[in-house]
Structure formats: structure tokens, C-alpha cells
Amino acid sequence: ISACGREPVSSKTQGFCLPSSPADGGASVACSALSHDSVIATSGSLNLSTTITRKSLTQTLIETEERKSTTAGKFGRYGGKFVPETLMLCLSQLEAEFKVVLHDDKFQAELATALKDYVGRETPLYLAQRITNYYKNSKGEGPEIYLKREDLNHGGAHKMNNAIAQAMLAKRIGRKSIVAATGAGQHGVATAAACAKLALECTIFMGRMDMERQSSNVTLMNLLGAEVRSVDGSFKDATSEAIRHWVNNLDSSYHLAGAPVGPHPCPTMVREFQSVIGKETRKQAMEKWGGKPDVLVACVGSGSNALGLFHEFVRDEDVRLIGVEAAGVGLESGKHSATLATGEVGVYHGAMSYLLQDEEGQIIGPHSIAVGLEYPGVSPELSFLKDVGRAEFYSVTDQEAIDAYRRVSRLEGIIPAMEASHALAFLEKLCPTLPDGTRVVVSCSGRGDKDAAMVLEHI
Amino acid sequence: MAFSSTNPTCRTATTSLPSKPHHLTTQLIPSRLPVNSVTVKTPSLISCAVTSHSMPLIEKDEEAVVHLRPDSFGRFGKFGGKYVPETLMYALTELESAFHALAGDHEFQKELDGILKDYVGRETPLYFAERLSEHYKRPNGEGPNIYLKREDLNHTGAHKINNAVAQALLAKRLGKKRIIAETGAGQHGVATATVCARFGLDCIIYMGAQDMERQSLNVFRMRLLGAEVSMEIIPLFLGIVGSLRVVSSILRIKQHGDIQVRAVHSGTATLKDATSEAIRDWVTNVETTHYILGSVAGPHPYPMMVREFHAVIGKETRKQALEKWGGKPDVLVACVGGGSNAMGLFHEFVDDKDVRLIGVEAAGFGLDSGKHAATLTKGEVGVLHGAMSYLLQDDDGQITEPHSISAGLDYPGVGPEHSFLKDLGRAEYYSITDEEALEGYYQILFDSVFSSIKRSVVLLYAAFKRLSRLEGIIPALETSHALAYLEKLCPTLPNGTNLVLNCSGRGDKDVHTAIKHLQV
């Protein structure tokens, strides 16, 4: 049951579009024509060497979407505000405030200083020479692999970009207390740190199972002064609890979303604050090789780091966008988190998007060794990009991710987060298909110290 | 960032150096010297070819003091030098020549700068700690402005990597394929293992067994970067000429993988023992091996080299201070174990007399308890690990076991340059005592009962928690020593003093130790 208490819309329309609401006009009807094989990520046929086709139609759709996302919070038919009445006013206020700060020079300057001096941006675009060599074929050809080093951020992941910005926003609108839900704990740590810095009270909801698996992050949150409340279950349940808490405390508390899911304006806000990743990448790519990246690869749990990297390049048709989800124990086993690969469209936590649901529309508990990827839903914007064929989504198993974790540690001396390891693991399948000299930027979304003990147990 | 060689090649007209032979045989045993036994006469005629930055003379009033840091013999005044066995002399000379050659090599500089930028993540921010500054404001609203130099944001989480990266590049230039290193907190070990993974070099890290226990996260990280550990205890009797200390047992590691971590059980099984073990290894394997020393200690040219590789910290700080407030910092504060992060911050400003330099050591259980690591406060001059410096020794010249809750400061010696700066009066060195610990205890705002906690570590955890709660930055326990000193320092500083504190590392590695002692 989604947080709004309504039955999620159960639809078996993967690859097709539902008739849209009148406000959308006729644009979404064209969706059905665009779902083509290369985008459907099953473990079977993968056509990795296709590039984006049907440019002009996709471009139109994306432009339409961008117009709409800032108004109704819709990305095609995805997104929206499926929430109880009590939240509607709050969301509108938040949206208004968000629009104001986007254009407020003083806020932007303060945010830029915080990102620079506190978070440690800009993060480097690092040529991973040894990984590049590792993927060279026998003729010495292969792509060039660059890592966008979000692991060097304060807090150890990209989550801080969004947390500090939203905490500043919350302070500006006069909220004294922040509430957030966290999976792997990285968003929790980032939020706790930002709240400490801005003198805000902080409550973090975390699933009991997750608290055990990422206990080091729980300790960090406590040290930073946050109250960590355990919730039966995992991230999805923590999110539900956080939203319930928010509905009950609308005037005093601020719900700091870490993931670009949930009702409008949350997905748009999180994306905007994370888009600094892509903006820096464009600039650094220009400095380093005088061009754009050819391929962008990022792991996808709910989609924050992926959107952060992709958003800047969505309109650049020649830049390929690849998201990598968690296939857990395997897609057939049913124990995975590959929402875009095997999910169906429904409403969850206030937004319409792909999600893992059973025949009766009940949410299926996801699984992944990477706690941060364990979410049965996904960003509505990514669902849209998948449907229009702008982005491709694949998945990678737990074991492949562990292998990548160890491989990158040994080759580059960088210990990537288990989440980021999924993106890095996908290079195994991707690189052999790429022409020589292709420039691939992989989002190294976090550092893997938190996963060290677990990986060593596995070995 | 370029590092400047401040060692001009000089021909001195007169030199007078002590040539007491017993120094050469006691590289691991300190000798207790009468205070004025070592003298260096100022050369009366000098012709110098300065290789890069020229060093202005430090104005001095009374007796002649050597102003070269270090001079061509590797001395800072009477401190420093090369008290090593014959076998190592050539390696050290070779290292020094290579270092000077690379100082002028643009290709090397460019490569190093690129790695520092893209791999390590420099430059690190100079962050205005607003809430911390507020905390130290007096009732009339006056107080210093506290800035943190964010070395905790470096790749691997501490300043140690600045030096590790540069030395690894240097080792490759020298054609060495095997790297050894010692480590206390594990940060230097992780940094070394990291760069060895990055550059594809074989690597052996020596770590005290006691340190391995208290810094297990770092041991995990080293293992992930390539270390395999299996256990076989082989007791080994080691006799050193003229020494009474005999037994050391080493955990033998089976040789898998490129990176090994060797646990050292001799002595207190901490940093000094790991250093001794690393030096023994180097003596045995000097042709094939480069020793990446982690701090500004050891025989010349290490104190100078490690300082130069960390000097980027101070250089960036100067630039950032100019950008932020159009001037220089008024006070620099850093924790001191071996002294690398402190030297890295201070070096740029040593010749700026209006910048105050403050080093903070670990007082452990208290200076009079005998269980501390406050070398510059309580130590006496002697030779340890190849250099003459202050060190903690008893009446027989035996090393006193140091103690500090933070593994990275748990060293009975200190870099010779710090000893020099202290004697010169250029830098001030303090440590944390019990009374201050109690004061700090009552200042903790959020907390519950400290049940079995030692009084002296209370202040430390207070500082550790304070930065976490006020700024959302969890500092390393080593850094927390410097932060704790702010309690004493800030009330004495005039309004608007710009203070830069070197936040030398992040505290994720100390979280488990902290929760044992704190009710979080």
C-alpha cells in the first residue's frame, strides 16, 4: 500500500502507454511507438551497440517533458502528486519556494560556497588508466574509462549535494526540524551532517535490517547528533514511515527526500540539486579532451546519482545514457531490485512510476547486496526516459558487483561503494562492444568503506 | 603543486660536526646526550647555488644559528642528520639526488600535480567553521574566526596520501619495484597500499599488532586493496650491538598478492616498533626496495622530502587565505605525532614572523603519569630511527613506551624540524592535561554518563563530538587533539583573529573506539 493509502494502480502495460489525462494532450500517445528492443533489459537479448534512434520525436518529447515537469510534475505520464489532501498545500508551498531559490542569487551563492568549502566540490573527473588498460582487447583497443569521483565528497557519497541544498532551503522557510528516510545510510549521514552544520534537529528513519547491515553509518548519524528511529522492514518501509511522520507534522518539520521519487516537487528538486554532477562533467570533459562524453554509466536505485549525471546531457542525442540496476541473486529468482527491467507501472509513495509489484498490486520486497539500490520503485523521470528510449537500463548480479568492488580496489586503489560497483561491473559487458577511444564516464557515486567488512566476509 | 627544494647546494668554508662513532651503531637505540654536546659552527664563507625558491635569512639576535632547513648534512640546527648503518648511506644519498633532480623536472611536477588533482582530489577547501567560531565567542560577541583546512576530504581520508603519491612516483623513477611502509593509525598504510595498487607496485606494510586491533577499518581497507593475511608465528631473536632489547616475534604472512600487511609484536606493538621493523627490512633489501616513510622523521632526506610533499597544504592555505580575507592566517594549529601534517601546514609560513605556529601533542593519561606521547614537552634530545630529535627516553637512554588513545600520535619521537623550531622559539608546542580534560567534560552539551572513561580522554572525545555536532564533520582522533586545544587558545585570542586548524583526517576509523567510550 502506498503512503497515501490508496491501492496502487496495477497495470500490465509495460512497453505501452495508458491513455493519458487530458492535460497531457496527445503527446504521450506516441509513446507506444517508441519502446524498442534495445531498451528492454532482460537477461536475455542485449543489443548493446545500438545508439539512440528516432531522434526528433524523442527530442520533442523530452522538451515537452521538461516544460511539464516544472509545472505539473509529470514526465510523460509518470510522476505527479498522488498524496492525501493534507499534503497538497504543503507540496505547493514547497514547489513555490523551490522555484524562488532556483533564481535567487544570494541562495545560489551560499549554496555554491557550501558545495565548495563544505562538501569539497568540484569532484575530479579521473582517468582510470589501469581499468582502461584492463579492458583493452588484444589489439590494444578499447574505451577510455573516466570516473566521476563523487566518493570524494564530504560524507562519502553524492547524497550530500542534495542534503545540504535542501537543508538550506528548509532553514530558509523557517523549519527547525528535518525528517528523512535512508537505505544504505549515506543519505542519513549526509542529512545529519548538513543539519549539524545548519543547527537543525534531525530525525532519520531507517529499516531495522538496513541498520544491521550498515551499522557504521548508524553510528556516524548518532555522532552527528541525529536521532535514528528504526522501522520494521527496509528502506521502502522507512520511506513510508517518514512520509507518515511528515503528514502529521506539516508545519514544523521538513521532509528531506534523498531520492528523486515521491510526489512533485521532490523528484524535480532532488534532480536539480544533483545536476551539479553532470554540469561539472561537461566542463571537465571539455577541458580534458575538448568534447563531450560518449557514454555515461551510473547505478540506479531510485535514480539520484544517475539523474544527477544524466540530466545535463539528456538533450545531447550523441551521449548514450546507461543505468545499471541490481539484479540481486538473479532476475529469475525474484530476489532483486531491477525495477525498470521487470517492474510494472503503478503509483507508489506519491508518484506514478515503474515498480516491483505482484499480481494484486502489492509491493514486492526488493533485494540487493547493495543496500542503497534496494528500492522497489524508481524515479518517474527515469521511467519516462526509458519509455522514450533516451536511456538504456541493464542489471548486474550481487556477485558481479562484488567482483567489480574488488577489481577496482586493486586496480585503482579506489574502494567504490557497493552501489557504484554495480555500474563498474557493467563495464565487463559494455567495454567489448565499444569502439576504440570511446570515452565512458562512470559515476563513482560513493566510497566503499561502509561495505568493507561485508565484502571481506563474502570472500 | 610544485614542491620547492629549500636545500641549496652549499659549499661551506668551515664545518664542524661531531664525529662520535657510537652514533652510527645505534640507529635503533637512542643515546642520551648532554644538551650542549652537539655544536655546529656557522660557516663563515658560503657559496650557494640555490635550486629553486631562495630562502630569506631568519633574523637572529644572539648567537649564530643555522638558518638552512635543512643544511647539506640534513641538519636543522643540531637536529636531524643520518644516524644509520653504512648499508643505508648510499640509498639515502641516491634518494636525495633523485629528489633534487625531480624538483626541477617539469614532467614530474605535471604528473604529480595531475594526480594530486584528479586522484587525490586537491585542492582541499579552507572551510569557515561558523558554528565552531560561534561556540568560542565570548559573551561580548568577540572571538577568533576559525577555518578548517579540509585534509579529511582527500582520497583515503587523511593528509598522508600527499606524501605517499609523490614518493611512489619517486620510487618508480628510481626503478624500485618493492615498497615498504610503517603505519600507526593505518592512514599512512592505507595511503601507501592505495598508491601501490594504483601504480602496480608490490608493497609490505608494517603495523603494530595493538594498532591493528584499534584501527580495524583501516586494516580491512588495506586487505581490500590487495593484502592477504594468513598466520604463522615465528619467534625471532634479534640482537643489536650494545643493546639489551632482544626479543621480537613477527607474524609471518604467506606471500599471496601484491600488498601485504605484517603485524609487529615487539615492544608495545605500536608505531615505533613498526618503524623499527620497516627500517630492518629496508637495511636487508635496500637495492630493490623504497621505504615510504610516513612522517617527517627518520634519516635525511626523509624529513625534508616528506615536508616538501606535504607543503602543498600550506601553499594552498596561503592562496585561499588571500582569496577569503585578503591576508595571511594569524595562527596555525595542528596536531603533532611524527609531525607531517603540522610541517605541511607550517612550512609555507615559517618565515612569516607574524604567523603563530602551534603544535598540539598527545598527553595521554597526563604528562606526569609517564603515559603520554608529549615528546616536545617532556622529551630529551637523542637519536631514534636515524635522526637526532627530542624523544621520550628514560635515564638509561631507553625509549619510554608512549601512550595515546589515538594511534597516529602514539610515537615517542618527533620530526627533527619540529625540535628545531621549538628550540628556536619559532613554534609553540602544547599538549592536553587532566585539568583541561575535566573542564572539557562539563562543556559537553548533549551527553550522558561517562562511566568507565579515563579522565584524560574525555576532552578528546569532547572535541571529537563537538566538531561532529557543530559542523557535521567527524574529525580523526588525532585531529581532535588540535581541536581540543582550541578550548584553551580561543579565549586568549583578540577579536577577529584568523585561525587555521589543519583538519588532518576524518574520524570514520575512530567511530568504534568512540562508541566504546561514549554514550552516543
From TrEMBL, chain A:
UniProt entry tagged with the keyword Amino-acid biosynthesis: yes
Cofactor(s) listed: pyridoxal 5'-phosphate
EC number, as in UniProt: 4.2.1.20
Signal peptide region: none
Catalytic reaction list: (1S,2R)-1-C-(indol-3-yl)glycerol 3-phosphate + L-serine = D-glyceraldehyde 3-phosphate + L-tryptophan + H2O
HAMAP family on file: Trp_synth_beta (MF_00133)
Name of the molecule in the record: Tryptophan synthase
Organism: Escallonia rubra
From TrEMBL, chain B:
Required co-factors: pyridoxal 5'-phosphate
Domain spans labelled Tryptophan synthase beta chain-like PALP: 121-229, 249-440
Cellular component per GO, a single term: chloroplast stroma
Catalytic activity: (1S,2R)-1-C-(indol-3-yl)glycerol 3-phosphate + L-serine = D-glyceraldehyde 3-phosphate + L-tryptophan + H2O
The keyword Protein biosynthesis belongs to this UniProt entry's keyword annotation: no
EC identifiers of the protein: 4.2.1.20
GO MF: tryptophan synthase activity
Entries under InterPro entries matching the protein: Trp_synth_b_CS, Trp_synth_beta, Trp_synth_beta/beta-like, TrpB-like_PALP, TrpB-like_PALP_sf
PROSITE patterns (alphabetical): TRP_SYNTHASE_BETA (PS00168)
Keywords assigned: Amino-acid biosynthesis, Aromatic amino acid biosynthesis, Lyase, Pyridoxal phosphate, Tryptophan biosynthesis
Annotated source species: Escallonia rubra
Name of the featured protein: tryptophan synthase
Domain of life of the source: Eukaryota
EC class name: lyase
Pathway assignment: Amino-acid biosynthesis; L-tryptophan biosynthesis; L-tryptophan from chorismate: step 5/5
CDD domains: Trp-synth_B (cd06446)
SUPFAM superfamilies in UniProt: Tryptophan synthase beta subunit-like PLP-dependent enzymes
Recorded coiled-coil stretches: none
